Amino acid sequence: MNKLLAVLVLPILGLGFGSAADSGVLRTIDTEKSVMTVRVFKAGFFSGFAHDHEIRAPIEEGSFDQGNPSVQLKVDARKLRVADKDVSDKDRAEIQQTMLGPKVLDSETFPEIRFRSTRVERITDRKWLVHGQLSVHGQTRPVSIDVMEQNGRYRGIAELKQKEFGINPISLAGGTVKVKNELRVEFDIVGR
């Protein structure tokens, strides 16, 4: 389930494609006001006894150019945090350790998650489809994210598959409880 964290990076993808008034300005991502959340879902016969997971990732650095729509960012995988509210502190710590450890993200070996846009398609005045390259767990793959701007904030949702990044979803109790391969990344980003 913790493998989901790697996906956190995606939210930053659509970050900076604002109004024409903002065009031509290279901006940095405000790491104090921006939030990326990865949602990991359970599956399996006994999934009713398991928990979905919410993981948050701080953005270590990033920037975007609104005049020539592009975005890049970096997340320190070692700083990803499990934010589950419906589990004990002990369970949260175990989930955190598994997620960052060699079974999932192997964050000591692969400490960086990076995204760099390659193309941005304007859908409407305040909606874009951002294409780019996401690097997680030593694997780089193309991804696309739908982004919407509202009141100066860039929000979006993307879905990823852990296996595409070399991560095998965690399975427990002989596979009767497991994490789905698909993850959902949500973001709320503000520029400086």
Describe the structure.
- The chain is mainly beta and 192 residues long.
- It has a single domain (2-189), classed as Lipocalin (Beta Barrel).
- Helix content is 6%, strand content 47%.
- Strands 1, 2, 3, 4, 5, 6, 7, 8, 9, 10, 11 and 12 form a 12-stranded antiparallel β-sheet that branches.
- The longest helix is centred in the middle third of the chain and has 12 residues, at 89-100.
- It is globular.
- The two termini are 33 Å apart.
- 38% of the residues are buried.
Write the layout of secondary structure elements.
Elements: E1 26-28, E2 35-43, E3 53-57, E4 61-65, E5 70-76, E6 81-82, H1 89-100, E7 112-124, E8 127-136, E9 139-150, E10 153-161, E11 171-172, E12 177-189
Give a quick set of tags describing it.
12 strands; disordered N terminus; mainly beta; 12-stranded antiparallel sheet; Lipocalin
Sheet bearing the most strands, described? 12 strands, antiparallel
Count the helices. How many? 1
| CATH homology superfamily | Lipid/polyisoprenoid-binding, YceI-like
Structural class: mainly beta
Cα(first) to Cα(last) distance is: 33 Å
Helical content, roughly?
A: under 10%
Catalogue the unreliable spans.
1-22, 44-49
- Provide the number of structural domains: 1
> Which value, in Å, is the CA radius of gyration?
17 Å
Identify the CATH class.
Mainly Beta
Query: What fold name goes in the CATH topology slot?
Result: Lipocalin
Which word captures the global form? globular
Q: Give the tally of β-strands.
A: 12
Instruction: Calculate the mean pLDDT score and round it.
Output: 78
Q: In CATH terms, what is the architecture?
A: Beta Barrel
**Secondary-structure element series:** EEEEEEHEEEEEE
Task: Note the beta-strand portion.
Answer: over 45%
